[in-house]
Amino acid sequence: MESNTIDAKAQSMGYVVLLAITTAISGFLFGFDTAVINGVLLLLRRQFTLSNLQTEVAASSLLLGCLLGAAGASMIGDRYGRRKSLILSAVLFALSSLGAAAASTIAFFSIARLIGGLAIGLASVLTPVYIAEISPSKNRGTLVSMNQLAIVIGILAAYLVNWQLSKMGEASWRWMLAVAAIPAVAFFAGLFAIPESPRWLISRGRYGEGQRILARIFGAKAAEEQVRSVQKAAAGEEGSWHEVFSPAMRKRLGVGMALALFSQVTGINTVLYYGSIIISEHFPGQSTGMALASNVIIGAVNLIFTIVAMVFLDRWGRRAILMTASGGMGLALTLLVIGLHVHNAPAGLVLGSILLYVAFFALGMGPGPWLIISEIFPTKVRGRAASIATSTLWTGTLVVTFTFLTLVNLLNLWGTFAIYGALSFVCFFYVWKAVPETKGRTLEQIQEAWGK
Asked: CA 74, 77, 81: angle at the middle one, nearest 5?
């Protein structure tokens, strides 16, 4: 009997992992589509003779779409369900990759990338929410972080593709973009094999469907208890925008928005998006191939420490990881500023501090905010509140990406990274003072704790 119980738990856990992996393909596309611009910009700048402003527009068009997609994700996800909304994002991913690859003008390129941004915005809100809503509490940190793992695998894949395809010549940027259509089609197909979020179904009064899915994940007895917990929690929720901005929700909404903003204004995407330009233009003598190869090293470090984060998020807790990450990022950027500002500083100091910075980001500020945003909001408003927090994240990304080259012209590279380092230390103190621990609690228990 005990052996049968263990086998059943292993099968149900295997099923949950399969659901998480399927939806996390959107994370791979998210990472690939955002990072591929790193190599594309080098070649695009030459082909279309782009100014700094035009380069910033080309890099930022995707991010504007991300902001718009995240803003609309709650209305689409709450009305049509998580699964159908993700199917829409898969279609947009494919259209964007092929459209951008075929672009003959920078305007057409920017519009195609904006469509891809809409897909990322939708998926960036709804994928963590979906995974959180189907995950056991003791494994939720690891499972939600699978989406972040998929993002960094997508980033590394983009860097590898850029590096290899750059050997094809000046038009290779088209192939760099087009290959993303392959995982987009796989994502589209995979979504037809997974169920709707059981918590969304129950919140819509479809108790039988929700309970059947929960029973497959947790077992029949635990499913009944979960249905009652979700019903009880939902009974006290309006599910309206008024509730999202109610006094009871303001603190957790503030935490979600602040963490989302800190994850971006501390500067990580300046390395991920502009890394090849930084290396090729600020370190003379570096070839395009060498600049793109350096990105591969950065992407590998990002991947390794994201895996470390997945192991420790459910052991150490969210607060400890976030404080370690933000403090470490601040120290790493301090070293980078010294390396950039001091004359004849060793190149190893600059590269080492960049890699240390990326490692600390991947350890906590990469997966942590996505996880907390998916946990702290009640079921009926989770989509809307997560949409606001994620829109804040994309606003931060858009501002940093659109202003980076301008800031470098005004303040030099070291001065720009000094700002990001100072904001990393501010983030450390914010987490210390304002962010509660959510480790080991069910989503309903987290709501009860916030309500006290």
From this structure: 155
- Is the CB of residue 59 less than 8 Å from the CB of residue 37? yes
DSSP codes joined into one string, 58-80: HHHHHHHHHHHHHHHHHHHHHHH
For each of the domains in the chain, give its residue range(s) and CATH number, in order of start.
Answer: 2-451 (1.20.1250.20)
CA 429 to CA 262: how far, in whole Å? 12
Per-residue pLDDT 10s for the chain (452 aa) are 444 444 445 457 788 899 999 999 999 999 999 889 877 887 888 888 888 788 878 888 988 999 899 889 888 998 899 999 999 999 999 999 999 999 988 889 999 999 999 999 999 889 988 998 888 877 887 888 888 889 989 989 998 998 888 888 778 899 999 999 999 999 999 999 999 999 889 888 888 898 898 888 888 887 888 788 777 766 665 567 787 888 878 888 999 999 999 999 999 988 876 766 666 655 665 556 666 677 788 889 999 999 998 888 888 888 999 999 999 999 999 999 998 888 777 777 888 889 999 999 999 999 889 888 888 888 778 878 888 998 999 899 889 888 888 898 899 889 999 999 999 999 999 999 998 887 777 777 777 776 64
Per the confidence metrics, is the pTM higher than 0.85? no
For 20-64, give the DSSP string: HHHHHHHHHHHHHHHHTHHHHHHHHHHHHT--HHHHHHHHHHHHH
| Gap between the Cα atoms of 413 and 271, Å rounded | 12
Structure-token pair, residue 66: 């991300």
Cα–Cα dist 59/41, whole Å: 8
